[in-house]
Amino acid sequence: MLSLFKRYRELLIVGTLLLYPLINYLSSGHKGREPNLADRVVLAISSPLQRGLTSVIEGSKGGLDGYVALRGARAERDQCVADLSAARADLNAMREAKAENERLRAALGYTETTVEPELAARVIGVNASPHYISLRINRGEGDGVRVGMPVLTHDGVVGQVSRFVVGGTADVMLITDPSSRLGAIVQRTRVRATAVGAGGGAPLKLDNVLREDDVVDGDVLITSGTDGLFPKGLVIGRVQKVEREANAMFLKAQVLPSVDLRKVEEVLLLPSTLALAPLHGEVKK
Amino acid sequence: MRFAATVGLALLFLSIEAVVTRQLGLEVTRLDVTLALVVFLGLRAATLEGAFAAFAIGYLLDVFTGRPTGLYPFLAVLTFLLTRMLSSFVDARARALFALLCGASALVHGLLAAFFSWLTSTASGGTIISLTGLPLQALLCAVAAALLWPLLRKLDPAYERPQAGMLR
């Protein structure tokens, strides 16, 4: 037996190296497992390197951009002054509306809920797989980040925190990821829907919308707040390629994300009372 | 030590790749520099040492995806074995041939990854992965391999393949 093993030692070892991960993959499916200690050590080693590289590249790019930007700075300044003036007028009108809103809320007996401040983070890397897309940000558990926290930019929804990495970083699952599901509403007609990630950088799919519902190309899709993670009213994207097949119960459509996910540099993490507890820490009471 | 050097290099490449990919806005595709390492192992390393190194590289790639599944270690070892088999017929000592081999490996690797992802996702709706980024990925892999060739050549003396043949 031992001599047989010695004879075919190389074949057995190579065969094991080949088949063990395959069997593991086929049995666990594409969902994968949570990172173990070894995985965390690997990621902890790579995180500082990624941070350093990002700082160097963005620092150099910022310096270069700053120099180039000086060429049109004067014209841009004049434009900014004009825009600021218009924005101040809008702000004033909004303040009036807010004051009126508060008066009406008070009259109706509503109480304002306390909202924690948003957490700003910088994207320091993307994962290596084109199939399961996620971003790595420079904020982690120690900064108050929780798994499930909604992540957005001023343009709209980016995704949600999917896990922590040792070294004060976290991974964000994008809304285009195949595992992503968002409760949504068509802003114009208030039709409810589900925005489902299609993977591979493709636009999202619009699910659960009846064929006769009023949805047209160009409609803005916002979060419905019914999925327990994202608050209501965040922009997801625009509806496009609406198709109504004769015998189908539901219509088919795509949703182009309002955020260019290929160019996200800074994100905001929204505190959510429904976000999950730390992955490997104690639940804080 | 050689194993550690190869794995360390793969870790460095993957860290750089993650940042550079984001800076270039290439989320849909990849540069696949680690595949060049696996192909190089297939051409130069001994079977056992190369298989372990390929497995380790695949494992790193798996961890970097965010959801370790075991797919990439399998594909890395398979790519290593295929390259090793091919190296019995083709002597890829020139930079251009090595780059071409890496490009072709990236294509096969990408197709297999898409196939297995589709295979395991059929139960949950059968997500079909877009392959539109694959030609670009293969091209970038070939370019990266050509650029890395001088560095990998420095590893060359460390990896002397004792005998020809697949599992000897």
Description of the structure:
The complex is a heterodimer of chains A (285) and B (168). With 285 residues, chain A is of the alpha+beta class. Chain A folds into 2 domains: 37-108, no CATH class; 118-275, Thrombin, subunit H (Beta Barrel), CATH 2.40.10. Chain A has helices at 2-7, 9-28, 37-69, 73-108; strands spanning 119-126, 134-137, 150-153, 156-165, 169-174, 181-186, 192-196, 204-207, 220-223, 235-243, 252-257, 266-269. In chain A, strands 1-2-5-4-3-12 form a 6-stranded antiparallel β-barrel. A 6-stranded antiparallel beta barrel of chain A has the order 6-7-8-11-10-9. Chain A is globular. Mean pLDDT of chain A is 81; it is low at 274-285. With 168 residues, chain B is an all-alpha fold. Chain B has a single domain, classed as Orthogonal Bundle (Arp2/3 complex 21 kDa subunit ARPC3), CATH 1.10.1760. Chain B is globular and about 40 Å long. Classes of the chains: A alpha+beta (285), B mainly alpha (168). Chains A and B meet through helix 2, helix 3, strand 1 and strand 2 of A and helix 1, helix 3, helix 4 and helix 5 of B.
Characteristic key phrases:
heterodimer, A: 285 residues, alpha+beta, Thrombin, subunit H, 2 domains, 6-stranded antiparallel barrel, B: 168 residues, mainly alpha, Arp2/3 complex 21 kDa subunit ARPC3, 6 helices
Oligomer: heterodimer
Mean of the pLDDT scores of chain B? 80
Tally of alpha and pi helices of chain A: 4
Order of helices and strands of chain B: HHHHHH
Number of structural domains of chain A: 2
What portion of residues of chain A is helical? 25-40%
- The CATH superfamily label of the largest domain in chain A reads Rod shape-determining protein MreC, domain 2
Strand content of chain A: 15-25%
Strand element count of chain B? 0
* Order of helical and strand elements of chain A: HHHHEEEEEEEEEEEE
Which helices and strands, and how do they pair?
The complex is a heterodimer of chains A (285) and B (168).
Chain A: H1 2-7, H2 9-28, H3 37-69, H4 73-108, E1 119-126, E2 134-137, E3 150-153, E4 156-165, E5 169-174, E6 181-186, E7 192-196, E8 204-207, E9 220-223, E10 235-243, E11 252-257, E12 266-269
Chain B: H1 2-24, H2 33-44, H3 47-64, H4 71-86, H5 95-121, H6 134-155
